[in-house]
Amino acid sequence: MSDANDPGAAALSPTSSREGSGLRWLPVAGAVIVLDQIVKAWVVAELKPYQPHHILPVLDFNLMFNTGAAWSFLADASGWQRGAFIALASFVSIAIVVWMSRLKSRSQGLLACSLAFILGGALGNMIDRVRLGHVVDFIFPHWNNHFFPAFNVADSSITIGAALLLLDALRDSRRGSSNT
Fold first, then answer.
1. Each residue of 87-130: pLDDT tens digit?
2. 50, 63 in Cβ contact below 8 A?
3. Active site residues
4. How does DSSP assign 42-77, residue by residue?
5. Which pLDDT band holds residue 145 (cuts at 50, 70, 90)?
């Protein structure tokens, strides 16, 4: 049995350091990855590529395959971009996990949560690139003849994470200005 008053015992416990860090939010990233992959598998099984299914007057489900990045950036490149995007997603994911490990789960929970959403989205799309050579997109918003690029659950998660990151920064800046 370890003594709760012994600081050395806490340092040796594998869960004690993780419980206090932002890594407590990793299950959010895992849930995003699972949801993203399940939805994409369903969409690929049920929809024919490039045949829109009208959901709302401003929204279609339209199965598309993106070899590029956001907004099909570099989609027309010769193929080198796949490895580059996989490497970039790997590097960013590792950096996010390291950052999360240095956060305090209670006082920096919003920041850790935002990073978990970004991590889950990045890994969801990276899995597509590794397995399929492209990212599966299907959510296709539009207004009359104006079209927004198609996206997916992983992209939505990255957007939610970025919004939470901005909210955390705004909250921190307000706390900082009230302390001066």
1. 999 999 999 999 999 999 888 999 999 999 999 999 999 999 99
2. yes
3. 137, 155
4. HHHHH--TT--EEEETTEEEEEEEESSSGGGTTTTS
5. confident
